[in-house]
Every structure is written in C-alpha cells, then in structure tokens.
Amino acid sequence: MTRIRRTAVAAVLTLVLPLPVIAAGTALAAPVSEHSAAVSDPYGLHPELPRPTGPHAVGREILHLVDTHRQDPWVPSAGLRQLMVSMYYPARPGTGRPAPYMTVEAAQDMLQLKLPGTTIPAEAVSGTRTWARSDARPEHGRFPLVMLSPGFTMPRTELTSLAEDLASRGYVVALVDHTYENSGTTFPDGQTLTCTICDTPPAGGPGVIAESRAKDISFVIDQLTSRHHPAWQYARMIDARRIGMAGHSLGGDAAVTTMAADKRVRAGVNLDGTMFAPVPATGLGGRPFLLVSHDQGGGEDPTWTSGWANLDGWKRWLIVSGSNHASFTDVPVLAEALGIPEPPGTTISAQRSVQITRTYVGAFFDLHLRGIPEPVLDGPSAADPEVSFHP
C-alpha cells in the first residue's frame, strides 16, 4: 500500500497544524521570538499532548535557516532555500515559559485548506497544550542529535509529541519544516508560504521530494554542528558523533535518502512511509534502520519488501495492530480531544499509539546512538501485544 495517500486517513491527518514560528531575511540563521504566539482557547476545548516520559524538562527554540548555496527547488523565483526548524533539548526545570503549539492564524489557514467548512474553531487547535518551555535554560552536557521530518503536506507540528519525548530522554531534536511541501510555513515577517507541490508533485514523483529533503536535512546538520559559527546558541549540547533521523510518511522515506547521502546520520527510522526513493542496492553501510507500519492491508508495502534485503545493518520491521497511517503522529490525540472519529479499522487509542511510537523510537535511538541495551527490540513483548515483528 502507498503511504502518501490522501484518503479518509488523510482527512484525519489534516488536524496536524503548522507551528507558528518564522523568520525571513538575509541572515544565515536566526532564533525566532515566540512571545506573540501564545493563545487562549475561549471555546473550552483543550487538547493536551501526552506528558513526556523521560527525566528531563524540555526546552524549545525556533530557528530560521537560509541556505546561501542552494536555490529553492520548488519555487526558484523565491531565491535561496529557507527553512524553519524547532529545536527541542533537555532543559533545566522551572525555566522558560510554555511553548505554544501554533498561532490562531496558522490554525485558521490549516483548517481552511484541509477541512473547508469545518466548525472546529482555530483556537481549539492552536491552544493545544505542549510540555516544552520556550527559551528554557539548557542542561549541562552533550547529547545525541535526532533529526525529524514530517509527512508530505504536513507541517512539522505533527511530530511535536515525539520531539518532546526524545528531548526528555536526553536528545537534542531538530524538527524541520520543508518549505512549500506542507500546508503552510510561517516566517517572521508574517508571510505564510503554502504548499506549491501538494496537488502537482514535481516530475519524478515523491522520490524527488525525498531526495530534496535529504539536502534540507544535511544543510541543517551542517548549520547545527559547525565548529566556527553554529546556527544555534546551544549547539555545544550536540554530540556530532551521534546523529540519527526519523520521519513520518514521506519523511520516513527521506530518512533513507538522507542516510544514503550523508554518512553522519548513523541510524534511521521510517514511520509508515512508502519508499519512493528506494534503499540503495549497495545498502546503508551497515547502519541500523527501523521500519514501523500500521496493519491495514496486513502491514505490507511492496517498497519495504524490496528494500528490506538492501538494509545491510541491524534492522527491524514492526507492525502495530489497530493503527492507521496517522497513528504515529499527534493527530490521534487532537482528533480524540476534538471529537473527530478515527478512520475505519482503527482500534488503538490515541494515548496508546503515542506510547508505542515513543517507546520503540526511543528504544531504537537509545540502543544505536547511546549503546543502551533495549530488550523491547529483541522480539514480541507481553507489555505491547499490539506490536508484531515482521519475519
């Protein structure tokens, strides 16, 4: 089955909204203020992301990065490629202020594009409660870096819960918005750039998009790990020897293309993404890779079957029963809070799907970036009966 589909499952996916943080200009990199982003929810609906499971408090800072060596691949007239990146990191408790999920304006744009005519108030989505704290003081020490890439048409907001949890477990996380590939990316000048390729993908199809994302990710890694002028004020927290990547849907495919092109990425996770850009026949240099799938259609994907043999390092293919394409994102939590039914065949609860995603993605990176044994990855567990291991 193709995991970039825009069917009934995609209708639920539309609840994922872009994080309202922005930046425009000529600077190579700049942090973005979030003071104006906090909103209230006068309608009494208060979606709340599940509490992170790790021992650390979580900080968040927003960066605007400009690639001075690359034109935008989708809108050449726009000039240089510009990206918005949310940085999540282990923080000192009691510092910073609540980090907003998104602005009301960004939520309105998303709802109008994805659910025209909906009666869901934008405030109900923009007011989603998160656990990160804006501009919180960082913890001491150095931590592995995990890059996150969202699904096609989806802004980075869809992976907020996973990003917060990884940071709470002791990772620095860079959650990347891929401009012109999602419903809207807002920049500091107030301009929101919408998706130019969502309805008409470029020649070469989704695989070309995944390859472009690999360039985005490598550029962000360059900026975060530069020895002389890193783009992030807390770059000293990053252990550049331990970098991983995870993505949902097309973002999962981008994890493959990124690892194929950039040997700095030591481990990868594909959350239910068809591999339009296949695993290279030469493999990934023995680096580990985790596949996580919903079980509709038996959890099979021909591109995974063909790519499996080319994954030449540690590998696992997990199937989560009762899940759907959106189950590995924030979408089920928001849908449940707003009274929107899940797609037919979905039996797993929102809280449970988040728990499983966090458990297995976190365990994977603990094992391969930190060397911590994780028996949960060895085989089926009585604690997680929904998770089966593909032969």
CATH architecture: 3-Layer(aba) Sandwich
Choose one word for the global shape: globular
The residue-averaged pLDDT reads 88
The helical percent reads 25-40%
Give the number of DSSP strands: 14
CATH topology: Rossmann fold
Please, what is the CATH homologous superfamily?
A: Alpha/Beta hydrolase fold, catalytic domain
Q: What is the structural class?
A: alpha/beta
Strand percentage lies at: 15-25%
Give me the strand/helix succession.
HEEEEHHEEHEEEHEHEEHEHHE
CATH class: Alpha Beta
How many domain modules? 1
Largest sheet: 12 strands, mixed
- Give the low-pLDDT segments: 5-27, 35-42
Number of helices: 9
Provide a descriptive summary of the structure in words.
With 391 residues, the chain is of the alpha/beta class. The protein has a single domain, classed as Alpha/Beta hydrolase fold, catalytic domain (Rossmann fold), CATH 3.40.50.1820. It is built from nine helices and 14 strands. It has helices at residues 8-13, 104-114, 122-126, 160-168, 206-225, 250-261, 302-308, 331-337, 350-370; strands at residues 29-32, 57-71, 80-91, 97-98, 133-134, 143-149, 172-177, 185-186, 192-193, 238-248, 265-271, 289-294, 315-320, 387-389. Strands 1, 2, 3, 4, 5, 6, 7, 10, 11, 12, 13 and 14 form a twelve-stranded mixed beta sheet that branches. Residues 5-27 and 35-42 have low confidence and may be disordered.
Compact description:
Helix content is 25%, strand content 22%. The protein is of the alpha/beta class.
Fill in the keyword field for this structure.
391 residues, alpha/beta, Rossmann fold, 12-stranded mixed beta sheet, two-stranded antiparallel sheet, 14 strands, 22% strand
